[in-house]
């Protein structure tokens, strides 16, 4: 299999499809290939949407591919569509891979619909922030698998997560791919096996698509590098306790001994995130400065929320998201500072990544906050406090958008590029899962992923909670 050629077959894509458009496309594929494709319902979302899986092929092993595990991350739905079409049209590829594929285009349709306002303007940072929605970690499909232990317990599994669990219980997969994307960062991966060859080859994929590898901060505090920009999957009990949520899909996949990968791709790309040259700024100074800026933003939004909290009458997912995000970003900031370690020179990539972490926090939180206030105004129940905060925070939002756009003035990434990286990662992982990855070792459950403090491999996280 020629991975580069497969990646080049990803077409130009102008926009992200709506939930309805995703299902229409996959229904058309199933109609065109009735002897190859089966579409079935595996569950129901919290708001009554059908959760559907597309099954292709009849190989001896099973692979599960999860699109949209976070609702603001639509790249994976496109990747599922491209992969499904390729498997239907290429008999030789399907036979070579030897899997029965179970493809879920959108596992959180309720949340995805709340992001559709920016899907037709994928490069517009203002539109993205104005229509952004990401739920409380305890309401995220990716992070609500059950956890039980002496110190921490989570059993509030979502219907969508339960549907994934039933599917995995049924097919006992050898491979699980959870498809994620972020904002301004390079490409990076999580893998649940210490497989140096797989990690090396994953690290080559971004270059084939013209995207930079991520050499900024690890997304999750304490992440351990297997190879550049390829991290060992962290134990879900640790991450769940930090986020106030459950385990991840990797933890459930481990029940079946499955290879689990997460390709994280950007919506915007900037070569500074791959620049490992020194800046002359001390790393601990960079971390402290970044933490102070994030706390300033969080304090301002905490104060604004306190001003309007008692007058809100419309209970929305935006309010739950704002409250949870304020709490979670503070927790992550504390972890970030605790892992700063010994001082050294910060890199260009790390400095760039810390600035992006601030832009991410401010625009995600404030964009969602404004949606919360707009819902109150639309209901006709807005108090003077709500209207005042809407005006003041709207001006702040305009300023913060301007600062973010000035810091990263380049064009948005062509959508086909992150799709191609995710496609390449799935196909590469399939070849490793099929051959048993004999030189790899599974990362045991409960293992600490931290290593020596202060090294770039274990520095702090610009996590997107």
Automatic annotation (TrEMBL):
One of its GO terms (biological process) is proteolysis. The keyword Membrane does not apply. GO terms for molecular function: metallocarboxypeptidase activity; zinc ion binding. Residues 448-465 have a biased composition (Low complexity). Residues 24-193 form the Peptidase M14 domain. InterPro entries: Peptidase_M14. It comes from the Bacteria. Keywords: Carboxypeptidase, Hydrolase, Protease. This is Zinc carboxypeptidase. Residues 437-465 are annotated as: Disordered. The keyword Hydrolase applies.
């Amino acid at each position: 299999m020629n991975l580069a050629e497969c990646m080049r077959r990803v077409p130009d894509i102008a926009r992200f499809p709506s939930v309805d458009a995703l299902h229409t496309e996959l229904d058309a594929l199933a109609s065109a290939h009735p002897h190859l494709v089966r579409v079935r319902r595996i569950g129901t979302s919290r708001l009554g949407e059908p959760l559907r899986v597309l099954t292709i092929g009849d190989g001896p092993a099973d692979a599960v591919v999860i699109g949209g595990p976070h609702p603001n991350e639509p790249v994976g739905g496109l990747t599922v569509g491209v992969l499904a079409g390729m498997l239907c049209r290429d008999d030789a590829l399907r036979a070579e891979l030897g899997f029965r594929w179970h493809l879920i285009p959108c596992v959180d349709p309720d949340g995805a619909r709340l992001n559709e306002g920016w899907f037709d303007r994928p490069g517009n940072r203002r539109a993205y922030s104005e229509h952004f929605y990401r739920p409380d970690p305890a309401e995220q499909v990716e992070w609500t698998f059950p956890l039980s232990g002496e110190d921490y317990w989570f059993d509030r599994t979502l219907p969508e997560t339960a549907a994934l669990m039933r599917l995995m219980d049924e097919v006992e997969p050898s491979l699980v791919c959870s498809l994620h994307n972020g904002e301004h960062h390079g490409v990076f991966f999580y893998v649940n096996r210490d497989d140096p060859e797989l990690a090396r080859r994953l690290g080559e994929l971004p270059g084939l698509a013209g995207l930079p590898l991520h050499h900024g901060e690890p997304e999750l505090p304490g992440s351990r590098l297997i190879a550049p920009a390829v991290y060992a999957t962290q134990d879900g009990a640790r991450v769940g306790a930090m986020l106030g949520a459950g385990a991840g899909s990797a933890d459930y996949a481990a029940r079946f001994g499955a290879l689990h990968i997460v390709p994280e791709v950007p919506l915007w790309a900037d070569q500074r995130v791959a620049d490992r040259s020194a800046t002359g700024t001390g790393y601990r100074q960079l971390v402290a400065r970044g933490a102070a800026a994030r706390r300033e933003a969080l304090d301002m939004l905490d104060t604004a929320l306190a001003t309007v909290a008692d007058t809100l009458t419309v209970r929305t997912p935006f309010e739950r998201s704002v409250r949870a995000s304020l709490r979670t970003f503070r927790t992550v900031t504390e972890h970030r500072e605790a892992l700063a370690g010994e001082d050294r020179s910060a890199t260009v990539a790390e400095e760039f990544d810390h600035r992006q972490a601030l832009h991410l926090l401010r625009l995600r939180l404030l964009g969602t906050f404004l949606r919360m206030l707009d819902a109150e105004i639309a209901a006709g129940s807005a108090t003077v406090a709500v209207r005042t905060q809407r005006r003041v925070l709207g001006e702040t939002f305009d300023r913060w958008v301007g600062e973010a756009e000035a810091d990263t003035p380049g064009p948005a990434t062509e959508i086909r590029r992150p799709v191609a990286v995710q496609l390449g990662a799935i196909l590469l992982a399939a070849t490793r899962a099929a051959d048993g990855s004999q030189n790899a070792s599974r990362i045991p459950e409960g293992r600490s992923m931290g290593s020596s403090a202060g090294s770039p491999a274990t520095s702090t996280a610009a996590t997107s909670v």
